[in-house]
Amino acid sequence: MSKPRVSRRIASIAESATLAVDAKAKALKAAGRPVIGFGAGEPDFPTPDYIVKAAADATSVVANHRYTPTPGLPEMREAIVKKTLRDSHYAITADQVLVTNGGKQSVYQSFAAIVDPGDEVLLPAPYWTSYPECIKLAGGVPVEVFADETQNYLVTVDQLEKARTEKTKVLLFCSPSNPTGSVYSPEQVKAIGEWAVKHGIWVITDEIYEHLLYDGATAPSLPVLVPAIADHCIILNGVAKTYAMTGWRVGWMIGPKDVIKASTNHQSHLSSNVSNVSQRAAIAALNGDLSAVHKMGEAFDRRRKLIVKLLNEFLAFNAQLQLVRSTLSIR
Ligand SMILES: Cc1ncc(COP(=O)(O)O)c(C=O)c1O
């Protein structure tokens, strides 16, 4: 009876805060309440028609009813190779790609692949809720490096250097960032990448929000600006945010061949291949153009500007109210 019912490792995991908030918002909406959920990063558009059609067609192909190779359908891995060259100007080969059950599984498997118990992982904060849990599940120690609004939520090389110890193995890098939306400039990306190379630190770079950019910002892929990191770098990505495909569960990791092979072995015992129908949909998404993505981006930008304007008006109103209150000595 002295043994815990749930293992200590699993009992220590916190629930995904974003999914908890999202479930609450969806329940309120279903009950007829006028709720807009800002919890999960989930486009409210339907998946574009041509992507849905590719999936519908795939359901009647018997080959898609069967197990397929763990690292992904050959056409899917090739589509990722082509997309990575088109969008990031980064040249890779198909054996550097592992297709996973959403980007979230890529996050989990990447830390599992390169982190040993006691290794420290530098984690720029504010961060997305799943990172520390995935680091801890791998036995690693998350080391937060905090950047506030005065530095636009972007960590500097000086801050990273201060947090570095002999145990530091990995830096988690996310640009554009969830939750802050901040984007590192090419100079900042280069400086951080070169610092990592200098100290033999791995970089896991999460590029899932690569297409959600505003006001002319660009988000260059870290190994493109710092090619010397390639052998110690894992890129995470997926179709969820770009193509409004959160429910289809398709993501991928790109990395050195030995890491991808090891992670494929891991996945072969965990979840095997990603749903073939979802992969067929993702192939259509990646092989298509970005016009639907740009259209959604324009709507996001309009809403972003509106909410920033409303918040600023609210803050200005609040400041005036405070002034009136203090003038009239109202407490
Ligand atoms: C920063 C970041 N990375 C990865 C993911 C994983 O996305 P998915 O598993 O839906 O592909 C998310 C989802 O919210 C995210 O915000």
List the helices and strands and how they pair.
Layout: H1 8-11, H2 17-30, H3 49-59, H4 74-88, E1 97-100, H5 102-114, E2 120-125, H6 130-137, E3 141-146, H7 157-163, E4 168-174, H8 186-198, E5 202-206, H9 222-225, E6 233-238, E7 251-254, H10 257-270, H11 276-287, H12 291-327
Parallel strand pairs: 2-3, 2-4, 4-5, 5-6
Antiparallel strand pairs: 1-7, 6-7
Helix pairs in contact: 3-11, 4-11, 5-6, 5-10
Bound molecules: pyridoxal-5'-phosphate.
Can you give a write-up of this model?
By secondary structure, this protein is α/β, with parallel strands linked by helices. The chain has two domains: 49-287, Aspartate Aminotransferase, domain 2 (3-Layer(aba) Sandwich); 290-331. The chain is 46% helix and 11% strand. The protein contains twelve helices and seven strands. The protein has helices spanning 8-11, 17-30, 49-59, 74-88, 102-114, 130-137, 157-163, 186-198, 222-225, 257-270, 276-287, 291-327, and strands spanning 97-100, 120-125, 141-146, 168-174, 202-206, 233-238, 251-254. A seven-stranded mixed sheet has the order 1-7-6-5-4-2-3, with helices on both faces. It is globular. It starts with 7 loop residues before the first helix and ends with a helix. It binds pyridoxal-5'-phosphate. Residues 40-41, 102-104, 107, 128, 174, 178, 206, 208, 238, 240, 246, 251 line the site of pyridoxal-5'-phosphate.
Any idea of the CATH topology of the largest domain? Aspartate Aminotransferase, domain 2
Helix-strand string: HHHHEHEHEHEHEHEEHHH
Task: Describe the global form.
Answer: globular
Beta-strand residue fraction: 5-15%
* Arithmetic mean of pLDDT: 95
CATH architecture classification of the largest domain? 3-Layer(aba) Sandwich
Cofactors, ions, other ligands: pyridoxal-5'-phosphate
Number of domains: 2
Integer-rounded radius of gyration: 22 Å
CATH superfamily of the largest domain: Type I PLP-dependent aspartate aminotransferase-like (Major domain)
The CATH class of the largest domain is identified as: Alpha Beta
The residue fraction in helices comes out at: 40-55%
Give the strand order of the largest sheet, numbering strands 1, 2, ... along the chain.
Answer: 1-7-6-5-4-2-3
Task: Quickly count the helices.
Answer: 12
Tell me the structural class.
Answer: alpha/beta
Number of DSSP E strands: 7
The major beta sheet can be summarized as:
7 strands, mixed
Distance between the termini: 57 Å
Low-confidence stretches at least 5 residues in length (pLDDT < 50)? none
